[in-house]
Glycoside hydrolase family 5 protein (Artomyces pyxidatus), 459 residues
Amino acid sequence: MRCHHIVSSVLLILGFALNAYGAQQCRLVLPAALDEPPPTPTPTAIATTSASASTPSVTPFTAFQYGTTPIRGVNLGGWFVLEPWITPSIFENTNNTAIVDEYTFGLLQDNATALAALQQHWSTWITEDDFIAIAAAGLTHVRIPVGYWSVPTSTNGTFPPYISGAYPYLQQAVQWARAHNIHVIIDLHGAPGSQNGYDNSGQRTSSPSWALNQANIAATLETINVLAGLDVDAVELLNEVAGFLGSVWDTAVRAYWKSGYGAVRQVGGNNMQVVIGDAFEGVSAWEGFLPYGSSPNVIMDYHEYQIFSDPELARSQAEHLAFACTLLPPMQALANTTMWTITGEWSTAITDCAIWLNGRGVGARWDGTYGDGAPAFGSCDGYTGDSSTFSEDYKTFMRQYWEVQVEIGEAVQGWIYWTWKTESADEWSYQKGLEGGWIPQDPSQRLYPGLCSGNSTGS
Ligand SMILES: *[C@@H]1O[C@H](CO)[C@@H](O)[C@H](O)[C@H]1NC(C)=O
Ligand SMILES: *[C@@H]1O[C@H](CO)[C@@H](O)[C@H](O)[C@H]1NC(C)=O
Ligand SMILES: *[C@@H]1O[C@H](CO)[C@@H](O)[C@H](O)[C@H]1NC(C)=O
Ligand SMILES: *[C@@H]1O[C@H](CO)[C@@H](O)[C@H](O)[C@H]1NC(C)=O
Ligand SMILES: *[C@@H]1O[C@H](CO)[C@@H](O)[C@H](O)[C@H]1NC(C)=O
Protein backbone atom coordinates (compact mmCIF):
# COMPACT_ATOMS: atom_id res chain seq x y z
CA MET A 1 0.00 0.00 0.00
CA ARG A 2 1.12 3.42 -0.61
CA CYS A 3 1.74 5.96 1.95
CA HIS A 4 0.09 9.16 1.20
CA HIS A 5 -2.05 9.60 -1.72
CA ILE A 6 -2.18 13.30 -1.72
CA VAL A 7 -1.87 14.93 -5.04
CA SER A 8 -0.68 18.20 -3.61
CA SER A 9 3.03 18.20 -4.07
CA VAL A 10 3.47 20.29 -0.95
CA LEU A 11 1.82 17.64 1.15
CA LEU A 12 3.67 14.92 -0.64
CA ILE A 13 6.95 16.57 0.14
CA LEU A 14 5.86 17.03 3.73
CA GLY A 15 4.88 13.39 3.88
CA PHE A 16 8.20 12.37 2.53
CA ALA A 17 10.07 14.54 4.95
CA LEU A 18 8.29 12.78 7.76
CA ASN A 19 9.21 9.50 6.22
CA ALA A 20 12.76 10.65 6.03
CA TYR A 21 13.07 10.84 9.76
CA GLY A 22 11.75 7.39 10.02
CA ALA A 23 8.05 7.73 10.26
CA GLN A 24 6.24 7.39 7.01
CA GLN A 25 5.89 3.90 5.68
CA CYS A 26 3.82 1.74 3.52
CA ARG A 27 4.98 -1.60 2.55
CA LEU A 28 8.26 -3.36 2.44
CA VAL A 29 10.68 -5.98 1.46
CA LEU A 30 13.42 -8.26 2.65
CA PRO A 31 17.19 -8.27 3.20
CA ALA A 32 20.42 -10.10 3.00
CA ALA A 33 22.43 -11.87 0.44
CA LEU A 34 24.37 -15.05 0.51
CA ASP A 35 27.78 -15.95 -0.69
CA GLU A 36 26.47 -18.68 -2.86
CA PRO A 37 23.59 -18.91 -5.25
CA PRO A 38 20.48 -19.46 -3.16
CA PRO A 39 19.16 -22.96 -2.67
CA THR A 40 16.64 -23.89 -5.28
CA PRO A 41 13.81 -25.80 -3.71
CA THR A 42 11.80 -27.69 -6.23
CA PRO A 43 8.15 -26.85 -6.52
CA THR A 44 7.20 -30.12 -4.89
CA ALA A 45 9.54 -29.46 -2.01
CA ILE A 46 7.81 -26.20 -1.23
CA ALA A 47 4.28 -27.29 -1.95
CA THR A 48 3.17 -27.24 1.65
CA THR A 49 -0.50 -27.75 0.90
CA SER A 50 -1.99 -30.56 0.59
CA ALA A 51 -5.37 -32.08 0.63
CA SER A 52 -6.89 -29.52 -1.68
CA ALA A 53 -4.02 -29.92 -4.07
CA SER A 54 -4.73 -33.57 -4.56
CA THR A 55 -8.38 -32.98 -5.42
CA PRO A 56 -8.33 -29.82 -7.49
CA SER A 57 -11.53 -28.41 -8.79
CA VAL A 58 -10.29 -28.17 -12.32
CA THR A 59 -11.02 -24.86 -13.96
CA PRO A 60 -9.28 -24.53 -17.29
CA PHE A 61 -7.08 -21.50 -17.57
CA THR A 62 -8.84 -19.03 -19.78
CA ALA A 63 -7.53 -15.85 -21.38
CA PHE A 64 -8.67 -12.73 -19.59
CA GLN A 65 -10.54 -10.12 -21.60
CA TYR A 66 -8.68 -6.98 -20.57
CA GLY A 67 -10.61 -3.79 -21.08
CA THR A 68 -13.91 -5.66 -21.20
CA THR A 69 -14.05 -7.73 -18.05
CA PRO A 70 -13.20 -5.86 -14.83
CA ILE A 71 -10.12 -7.00 -12.96
CA ARG A 72 -11.17 -8.10 -9.47
CA GLY A 73 -8.02 -8.83 -7.58
CA VAL A 74 -6.14 -9.02 -4.35
CA ASN A 75 -2.53 -8.28 -3.52
CA LEU A 76 -0.37 -10.96 -1.92
CA GLY A 77 1.35 -8.40 0.28
CA GLY A 78 4.11 -9.20 2.72
CA TRP A 79 5.10 -12.46 1.05
CA PHE A 80 8.15 -11.83 -1.13
CA VAL A 81 8.65 -8.34 0.23
CA LEU A 82 8.50 -8.23 4.02
CA GLU A 83 6.51 -5.48 5.70
CA PRO A 84 6.73 -5.15 9.48
CA TRP A 85 3.02 -4.31 9.85
CA ILE A 86 1.86 -7.31 7.82
CA THR A 87 4.05 -9.85 9.64
CA PRO A 88 5.24 -8.20 12.87
CA SER A 89 6.22 -11.58 14.32
CA ILE A 90 9.00 -12.02 11.77
CA PHE A 91 10.57 -8.80 13.00
CA GLU A 92 9.87 -9.41 16.68
CA ASN A 93 11.53 -12.82 16.41
CA THR A 94 14.84 -11.21 15.42
CA ASN A 95 15.19 -9.73 18.92
CA ASN A 96 16.66 -6.67 17.23
CA THR A 97 14.72 -3.44 17.01
CA ALA A 98 17.16 -2.10 14.42
CA ILE A 99 15.75 -4.59 11.93
CA VAL A 100 13.06 -2.49 10.27
CA ASP A 101 12.92 -3.75 6.70
CA GLU A 102 14.14 -6.58 4.49
CA TYR A 103 17.47 -4.87 3.93
CA THR A 104 18.33 -4.71 7.64
CA PHE A 105 16.83 -8.19 8.07
CA GLY A 106 19.74 -9.45 6.00
CA LEU A 107 22.31 -6.94 7.12
CA LEU A 108 21.96 -7.38 10.88
CA GLN A 109 21.50 -11.11 11.17
CA ASP A 110 23.52 -14.18 10.61
CA ASN A 111 22.84 -15.24 7.02
CA ALA A 112 21.75 -18.74 7.85
CA THR A 113 19.35 -17.50 10.54
CA ALA A 114 17.84 -14.95 8.19
CA LEU A 115 17.52 -17.42 5.34
CA ALA A 116 15.88 -20.03 7.54
CA ALA A 117 13.33 -17.50 8.79
CA LEU A 118 12.57 -16.36 5.25
CA GLN A 119 12.25 -19.86 3.87
CA GLN A 120 9.83 -20.68 6.65
CA HIS A 121 7.85 -17.57 5.73
CA TRP A 122 7.94 -18.10 1.95
CA SER A 123 6.64 -21.64 2.31
CA THR A 124 3.81 -20.85 4.72
CA TRP A 125 2.52 -17.28 4.38
CA ILE A 126 0.63 -18.06 1.17
CA THR A 127 -0.11 -21.64 0.10
CA GLU A 128 -2.15 -23.28 -2.61
CA ASP A 129 -5.16 -23.15 -0.30
CA ASP A 130 -5.01 -19.37 -0.50
CA PHE A 131 -5.28 -19.48 -4.28
CA ILE A 132 -8.26 -21.79 -3.89
CA ALA A 133 -9.90 -19.37 -1.46
CA ILE A 134 -9.12 -16.41 -3.71
CA ALA A 135 -10.77 -18.14 -6.64
CA ALA A 136 -13.74 -19.09 -4.47
CA ALA A 137 -14.16 -15.42 -3.55
CA GLY A 138 -14.82 -14.61 -7.19
CA LEU A 139 -11.50 -12.88 -7.72
CA THR A 140 -9.79 -12.97 -11.09
CA HIS A 141 -6.31 -11.68 -10.32
CA VAL A 142 -3.49 -11.64 -7.83
CA ARG A 143 -0.81 -8.96 -7.81
CA ILE A 144 2.39 -10.39 -6.39
CA PRO A 145 5.00 -7.92 -5.10
CA VAL A 146 8.59 -9.05 -5.49
CA GLY A 147 11.95 -7.43 -4.80
CA TYR A 148 14.71 -7.22 -7.39
CA TRP A 149 17.00 -9.18 -5.07
CA SER A 150 14.79 -12.25 -5.47
CA VAL A 151 15.04 -12.34 -9.24
CA PRO A 152 17.90 -14.34 -10.78
CA THR A 153 19.55 -12.03 -13.25
CA SER A 154 23.10 -12.40 -14.52
CA THR A 155 24.49 -12.12 -11.01
CA ASN A 156 22.42 -15.17 -10.19
CA GLY A 157 20.32 -13.29 -7.71
CA THR A 158 22.77 -12.43 -5.00
CA PHE A 159 22.41 -8.84 -3.91
CA PRO A 160 23.96 -8.38 -0.49
CA PRO A 161 22.79 -7.72 2.13
CA TYR A 162 19.45 -8.97 0.82
CA ILE A 163 18.77 -12.66 1.29
CA SER A 164 17.95 -14.25 -2.01
CA GLY A 165 16.06 -17.45 -2.52
CA ALA A 166 12.41 -16.50 -3.03
CA TYR A 167 12.27 -17.09 -6.77
CA PRO A 168 11.33 -20.80 -6.76
CA TYR A 169 8.46 -19.93 -4.44
CA LEU A 170 7.35 -17.25 -6.87
CA GLN A 171 7.48 -19.75 -9.72
CA GLN A 172 5.39 -22.11 -7.63
CA ALA A 173 2.88 -19.32 -6.99
CA VAL A 174 2.49 -18.74 -10.72
CA GLN A 175 1.74 -22.44 -11.20
CA TRP A 176 -0.83 -22.45 -8.42
CA ALA A 177 -2.51 -19.37 -9.84
CA ARG A 178 -2.76 -20.95 -13.25
CA ALA A 179 -4.11 -24.18 -11.81
CA HIS A 180 -6.96 -22.23 -10.23
CA ASN A 181 -7.61 -19.88 -13.14
CA ILE A 182 -6.23 -16.84 -11.36
CA HIS A 183 -4.37 -14.30 -13.49
CA VAL A 184 -1.06 -12.97 -12.23
CA ILE A 185 0.40 -9.51 -12.21
CA ILE A 186 4.04 -9.73 -11.14
CA ASP A 187 4.79 -6.43 -9.44
CA LEU A 188 8.38 -5.32 -9.07
CA HIS A 189 8.08 -3.71 -5.66
CA GLY A 190 11.68 -2.97 -4.77
CA ALA A 191 14.38 -1.74 -7.14
CA PRO A 192 18.10 -1.16 -6.68
CA GLY A 193 18.74 1.95 -4.62
CA SER A 194 15.06 2.01 -3.53
CA GLN A 195 12.52 3.84 -5.66
CA ASN A 196 10.80 5.57 -2.75
CA GLY A 197 12.59 4.99 0.57
CA TYR A 198 9.63 3.13 2.08
CA ASP A 199 10.23 -0.08 3.97
CA ASN A 200 8.07 -1.77 1.35
CA SER A 201 10.71 -1.04 -1.29
CA GLY A 202 13.06 -3.24 0.72
CA GLN A 203 14.94 -0.40 2.31
CA ARG A 204 13.60 2.32 4.56
CA THR A 205 15.82 5.27 3.82
CA SER A 206 15.71 9.04 3.67
CA SER A 207 17.88 8.96 0.56
CA PRO A 208 16.41 6.63 -2.05
CA SER A 209 18.64 6.63 -5.10
CA TRP A 210 17.01 4.51 -7.80
CA ALA A 211 16.61 7.37 -10.25
CA LEU A 212 19.95 8.95 -9.48
CA ASN A 213 22.15 6.27 -10.97
CA GLN A 214 21.76 4.87 -14.46
CA ALA A 215 23.20 1.55 -13.30
CA ASN A 216 20.20 1.11 -11.00
CA ILE A 217 17.82 1.62 -13.88
CA ALA A 218 19.77 -0.74 -16.13
CA ALA A 219 19.70 -3.41 -13.42
CA THR A 220 15.96 -2.89 -13.02
CA LEU A 221 15.43 -3.49 -16.73
CA GLU A 222 17.46 -6.65 -16.44
CA THR A 223 15.08 -7.77 -13.69
CA ILE A 224 12.11 -7.04 -15.95
CA ASN A 225 13.69 -9.12 -18.70
CA VAL A 226 13.60 -12.11 -16.36
CA LEU A 227 10.12 -11.47 -14.94
CA ALA A 228 8.61 -11.05 -18.42
CA GLY A 229 9.71 -14.61 -19.15
CA LEU A 230 7.30 -15.95 -16.54
CA ASP A 231 3.99 -17.44 -17.60
CA VAL A 232 1.98 -14.50 -16.29
CA ASP A 233 -0.55 -12.05 -17.69
CA ALA A 234 1.19 -8.88 -16.63
CA VAL A 235 4.40 -7.35 -15.36
CA GLU A 236 4.28 -4.17 -13.32
CA LEU A 237 7.48 -2.31 -14.09
CA LEU A 238 7.92 -0.74 -10.64
CA ASN A 239 5.73 0.10 -7.68
CA GLU A 240 5.27 3.63 -6.35
CA VAL A 241 8.19 5.54 -7.81
CA ALA A 242 8.76 8.75 -5.87
CA GLY A 243 8.04 11.20 -8.66
CA PHE A 244 7.58 13.90 -6.03
CA LEU A 245 11.32 13.96 -5.39
CA GLY A 246 11.82 16.21 -8.37
CA SER A 247 12.29 16.42 -12.09
CA VAL A 248 15.21 13.99 -12.17
CA TRP A 249 12.88 11.32 -10.84
CA ASP A 250 10.03 12.26 -13.13
CA THR A 251 12.29 12.23 -16.17
CA ALA A 252 13.84 8.91 -15.15
CA VAL A 253 10.55 7.16 -14.54
CA ARG A 254 9.04 8.32 -17.82
CA ALA A 255 12.06 7.01 -19.73
CA TYR A 256 12.02 3.80 -17.72
CA TRP A 257 8.32 3.12 -18.41
CA LYS A 258 9.11 3.32 -22.13
CA SER A 259 12.20 1.11 -21.90
CA GLY A 260 10.34 -1.33 -19.71
CA TYR A 261 7.45 -1.43 -22.16
CA GLY A 262 9.93 -2.39 -24.86
CA ALA A 263 11.54 -5.04 -22.67
CA VAL A 264 8.21 -6.70 -21.88
CA ARG A 265 7.19 -6.63 -25.53
CA GLN A 266 10.46 -8.25 -26.55
CA VAL A 267 10.46 -10.98 -23.91
CA GLY A 268 6.79 -11.45 -23.10
CA GLY A 269 5.18 -10.66 -26.44
CA ASN A 270 2.48 -8.25 -27.55
CA ASN A 271 -0.28 -9.63 -25.37
CA MET A 272 1.47 -9.31 -22.04
CA GLN A 273 0.05 -6.42 -20.04
CA VAL A 274 2.53 -3.75 -19.01
CA VAL A 275 1.54 -2.08 -15.75
CA ILE A 276 2.90 1.32 -14.80
CA GLY A 277 2.15 3.71 -11.93
CA ASP A 278 1.39 7.41 -11.64
CA ALA A 279 4.56 8.08 -9.58
CA PHE A 280 2.40 10.09 -7.14
CA GLU A 281 1.78 12.66 -9.86
CA GLY A 282 -1.92 11.90 -10.26
CA VAL A 283 -3.34 10.04 -13.22
CA SER A 284 -3.99 13.23 -15.19
CA ALA A 285 -0.23 13.70 -15.52
CA TRP A 286 -0.16 10.63 -17.76
CA GLU A 287 -2.71 11.57 -20.40
CA GLY A 288 -1.26 10.86 -23.81
CA PHE A 289 1.59 8.74 -22.41
CA LEU A 290 2.01 5.27 -23.98
CA PRO A 291 -1.44 5.66 -25.56
CA TYR A 292 -3.69 2.93 -26.90
CA GLY A 293 -2.86 3.59 -30.54
CA SER A 294 0.90 3.19 -30.42
CA SER A 295 1.28 1.14 -27.21
CA PRO A 296 -1.62 -1.19 -26.51
CA ASN A 297 -1.95 -3.40 -23.45
CA VAL A 298 -0.73 -0.88 -20.91
CA ILE A 299 -2.45 -0.48 -17.54
CA MET A 300 -2.17 2.49 -15.19
CA ASP A 301 -2.10 1.26 -11.58
CA TYR A 302 -3.41 4.02 -9.32
CA HIS A 303 -3.26 3.58 -5.53
CA GLU A 304 -5.86 4.98 -3.22
CA TYR A 305 -5.40 5.42 0.51
CA GLN A 306 -6.84 8.17 2.66
CA ILE A 307 -4.88 7.66 5.85
CA PHE A 308 -1.32 8.89 5.52
CA SER A 309 -1.81 12.52 6.45
CA ASP A 310 -3.76 14.44 9.06
CA PRO A 311 -6.14 16.07 6.55
CA GLU A 312 -7.10 12.66 5.21
CA LEU A 313 -7.53 11.13 8.65
CA ALA A 314 -9.73 14.09 9.62
CA ARG A 315 -12.40 13.07 7.11
CA SER A 316 -15.65 11.69 8.45
CA GLN A 317 -16.79 8.30 7.22
CA ALA A 318 -19.18 9.97 4.77
CA GLU A 319 -16.34 12.18 3.57
CA HIS A 320 -14.12 9.17 2.94
CA LEU A 321 -16.84 7.68 0.73
CA ALA A 322 -17.41 10.95 -1.08
CA PHE A 323 -13.71 11.50 -1.61
CA ALA A 324 -13.35 8.08 -3.25
CA CYS A 325 -15.98 9.16 -5.78
CA THR A 326 -13.98 12.27 -6.72
CA LEU A 327 -11.17 10.00 -7.94
CA LEU A 328 -13.31 8.57 -10.70
CA PRO A 329 -13.45 11.41 -13.27
CA PRO A 330 -9.67 11.70 -13.71
CA MET A 331 -9.33 7.91 -13.85
CA GLN A 332 -12.09 7.71 -16.46
CA ALA A 333 -10.47 10.48 -18.45
CA LEU A 334 -7.20 8.56 -18.60
CA ALA A 335 -9.01 5.32 -19.41
CA ASN A 336 -11.04 7.02 -22.14
CA THR A 337 -8.10 8.70 -23.83
CA THR A 338 -4.88 6.88 -23.08
CA MET A 339 -4.63 3.54 -21.29
CA TRP A 340 -6.56 1.07 -19.20
CA THR A 341 -6.72 2.19 -15.61
CA ILE A 342 -7.18 0.30 -12.35
CA THR A 343 -6.97 0.92 -8.63
CA GLY A 344 -4.19 -1.53 -7.87
CA GLU A 345 -4.01 -0.86 -4.14
CA TRP A 346 -6.68 0.25 -1.70
CA SER A 347 -8.18 -1.07 1.51
CA THR A 348 -11.00 -0.62 3.97
CA ALA A 349 -8.77 0.97 6.63
CA ILE A 350 -9.62 4.54 7.64
CA THR A 351 -6.93 4.92 10.28
CA ASP A 352 -3.18 4.33 10.39
CA CYS A 353 -3.61 2.37 13.63
CA ALA A 354 -2.25 -0.97 12.43
CA ILE A 355 0.91 -1.60 14.41
CA TRP A 356 4.03 -0.45 12.50
CA LEU A 357 2.01 0.63 9.50
CA ASN A 358 4.13 3.77 9.46
CA GLY A 359 7.30 1.76 9.99
CA ARG A 360 8.64 -0.49 12.71
CA GLY A 361 8.89 1.46 15.96
CA VAL A 362 6.76 4.32 14.61
CA GLY A 363 3.35 5.15 16.07
CA ALA A 364 0.10 6.28 14.50
CA ARG A 365 -1.15 9.74 13.63
CA TRP A 366 -4.62 8.62 14.64
CA ASP A 367 -3.82 8.22 18.34
CA GLY A 368 -1.13 10.89 18.52
CA THR A 369 1.82 8.49 18.87
CA TYR A 370 3.34 9.33 15.49
CA GLY A 371 5.86 11.70 17.00
CA ASP A 372 5.17 14.85 15.02
CA GLY A 373 3.44 16.64 17.87
CA ALA A 374 0.10 16.74 16.10
CA PRO A 375 -2.97 16.06 18.23
CA ALA A 376 -4.70 12.70 18.27
CA PHE A 377 -7.94 12.00 16.45
CA GLY A 378 -8.91 9.36 18.97
CA SER A 379 -8.09 5.97 20.37
CA CYS A 380 -7.05 3.14 18.10
CA ASP A 381 -9.15 0.71 20.15
CA GLY A 382 -11.69 -1.01 17.96
CA TYR A 383 -10.11 0.17 14.68
CA THR A 384 -7.36 -2.41 14.29
CA GLY A 385 -6.28 -5.79 15.54
CA ASP A 386 -8.72 -8.66 15.90
CA SER A 387 -12.08 -8.07 14.26
CA SER A 388 -13.87 -9.36 17.36
CA THR A 389 -13.24 -5.86 18.73
CA PHE A 390 -14.91 -4.18 15.72
CA SER A 391 -18.37 -2.67 16.23
CA GLU A 392 -21.26 -3.41 13.90
CA ASP A 393 -21.24 0.23 12.80
CA TYR A 394 -17.55 0.01 11.89
CA LYS A 395 -18.09 -3.16 9.92
CA THR A 396 -21.06 -1.58 8.15
CA PHE A 397 -18.88 1.37 7.21
CA MET A 398 -16.13 -0.92 5.95
CA ARG A 399 -18.68 -2.68 3.75
CA GLN A 400 -19.69 0.69 2.29
CA TYR A 401 -16.08 1.72 1.85
CA TRP A 402 -15.31 -1.58 0.13
CA GLU A 403 -18.32 -1.14 -2.18
CA VAL A 404 -17.56 2.45 -3.13
CA GLN A 405 -13.99 1.58 -4.05
CA VAL A 406 -15.14 -1.43 -6.05
CA GLU A 407 -17.66 0.82 -7.76
CA ILE A 408 -14.99 3.27 -8.91
CA GLY A 409 -12.60 0.48 -9.89
CA GLU A 410 -15.25 -1.19 -12.02
CA ALA A 411 -16.15 2.13 -13.65
CA VAL A 412 -12.67 1.82 -15.18
CA GLN A 413 -10.87 -1.49 -15.76
CA GLY A 414 -10.87 -2.93 -12.26
CA TRP A 415 -9.40 -3.09 -8.80
CA ILE A 416 -6.94 -4.97 -6.62
CA TYR A 417 -7.36 -4.90 -2.85
CA TRP A 418 -4.43 -4.49 -0.46
CA THR A 419 -4.02 -7.11 0.99
CA TRP A 420 -5.09 -10.78 1.16
CA LYS A 421 -3.89 -11.44 4.72
CA THR A 422 -2.17 -9.86 7.69
CA GLU A 423 -1.04 -11.31 11.00
CA SER A 424 -3.00 -8.93 13.19
CA ALA A 425 -4.53 -5.96 11.34
CA ASP A 426 -7.91 -7.37 10.35
CA GLU A 427 -9.15 -4.09 8.85
CA TRP A 428 -6.64 -4.61 6.03
CA SER A 429 -7.31 -8.31 5.45
CA TYR A 430 -9.49 -9.47 2.56
CA GLN A 431 -9.59 -12.88 4.19
CA LYS A 432 -10.92 -11.44 7.46
CA GLY A 433 -13.33 -9.23 5.57
CA LEU A 434 -14.86 -12.31 3.95
CA GLU A 435 -15.11 -14.02 7.33
CA GLY A 436 -16.54 -10.94 9.03
CA GLY A 437 -18.99 -10.12 6.27
CA TRP A 438 -17.75 -6.64 5.42
CA ILE A 439 -16.47 -8.07 2.16
CA PRO A 440 -18.99 -10.19 0.23
CA GLN A 441 -18.14 -13.67 -0.99
CA ASP A 442 -19.56 -12.59 -4.36
CA PRO A 443 -17.76 -9.40 -5.37
CA SER A 444 -20.65 -8.32 -7.58
CA GLN A 445 -23.03 -8.21 -4.63
CA ARG A 446 -24.05 -4.70 -3.54
CA LEU A 447 -25.81 -3.71 -0.34
CA TYR A 448 -25.23 -0.04 -1.18
CA PRO A 449 -25.52 0.41 -4.92
CA GLY A 450 -24.80 3.73 -6.53
CA LEU A 451 -22.73 5.28 -3.74
CA CYS A 452 -21.15 7.63 -6.29
CA SER A 453 -24.45 8.50 -7.94
CA GLY A 454 -26.13 10.17 -5.07
CA ASN A 455 -27.41 7.19 -3.12
CA SER A 456 -27.25 7.76 0.61
CA THR A 457 -25.71 5.07 2.77
CA GLY A 458 -28.38 5.55 5.38
CA SER A 459 -25.72 5.93 8.04
C1 LIG B 1 26.70 -13.32 4.66
O1 LIG B 1 26.47 -12.53 3.54
C2 LIG B 1 27.38 -11.48 3.35
C3 LIG B 1 26.93 -10.67 2.21
O2 LIG B 1 26.78 -11.49 1.07
C4 LIG B 1 28.76 -12.04 3.12
O3 LIG B 1 29.66 -10.98 3.00
C5 LIG B 1 29.10 -12.90 4.29
O4 LIG B 1 30.30 -13.51 4.03
C6 LIG B 1 28.04 -13.95 4.53
N1 LIG B 1 28.34 -14.66 5.73
C7 LIG B 1 28.18 -15.96 5.85
C8 LIG B 1 28.50 -16.53 7.16
O5 LIG B 1 27.79 -16.65 4.92
C1 LIG C 1 15.27 -14.35 20.39
O1 LIG C 1 15.18 -14.57 21.78
C2 LIG C 1 14.51 -15.78 22.11
C3 LIG C 1 14.34 -15.83 23.62
O2 LIG C 1 15.57 -15.64 24.23
C4 LIG C 1 15.29 -16.97 21.58
O3 LIG C 1 14.62 -18.16 21.87
C5 LIG C 1 15.43 -16.82 20.08
O4 LIG C 1 16.24 -17.85 19.56
C6 LIG C 1 16.03 -15.49 19.71
N1 LIG C 1 15.99 -15.33 18.28
C7 LIG C 1 17.06 -15.05 17.57
C8 LIG C 1 16.87 -14.93 16.07
O5 LIG C 1 18.16 -14.86 18.04
C1 LIG D 1 24.88 -18.20 -13.02
O1 LIG D 1 24.51 -19.55 -12.85
C2 LIG D 1 24.64 -20.30 -14.04
C3 LIG D 1 24.07 -21.68 -13.80
O2 LIG D 1 24.42 -22.14 -12.55
C4 LIG D 1 26.12 -20.33 -14.47
O3 LIG D 1 26.26 -21.04 -15.67
C5 LIG D 1 26.60 -18.89 -14.69
O4 LIG D 1 27.98 -18.88 -14.94
C6 LIG D 1 26.32 -18.04 -13.46
N1 LIG D 1 26.60 -16.64 -13.76
C7 LIG D 1 27.27 -15.85 -12.93
C8 LIG D 1 27.46 -14.43 -13.38
O5 LIG D 1 27.71 -16.24 -11.87
C1 LIG E 1 -15.43 8.22 -20.27
O1 LIG E 1 -16.23 7.40 -21.09
C2 LIG E 1 -17.41 6.94 -20.46
C3 LIG E 1 -18.09 5.93 -21.37
O2 LIG E 1 -18.22 6.46 -22.67
C4 LIG E 1 -18.31 8.12 -20.15
O3 LIG E 1 -19.47 7.70 -19.49
C5 LIG E 1 -17.56 9.07 -19.25
O4 LIG E 1 -18.32 10.24 -19.03
C6 LIG E 1 -16.20 9.45 -19.84
N1 LIG E 1 -15.51 10.18 -18.80
C7 LIG E 1 -14.58 11.09 -19.05
C8 LIG E 1 -14.04 11.81 -17.88
O5 LIG E 1 -14.19 11.33 -20.17
C1 LIG F 1 -29.83 3.23 -4.76
O1 LIG F 1 -30.04 2.19 -3.82
C2 LIG F 1 -31.21 1.44 -4.03
C3 LIG F 1 -31.33 0.39 -2.93
O2 LIG F 1 -30.61 0.77 -1.81
C4 LIG F 1 -31.15 0.74 -5.39
O3 LIG F 1 -32.36 0.05 -5.63
C5 LIG F 1 -30.91 1.78 -6.48
O4 LIG F 1 -30.72 1.12 -7.70
C6 LIG F 1 -29.71 2.62 -6.16
N1 LIG F 1 -29.54 3.68 -7.15
C7 LIG F 1 -28.47 3.73 -7.95
C8 LIG F 1 -28.38 4.92 -8.84
O5 LIG F 1 -27.60 2.90 -7.96
Q: What stands out?
A: The radius of gyration is 20 Å.
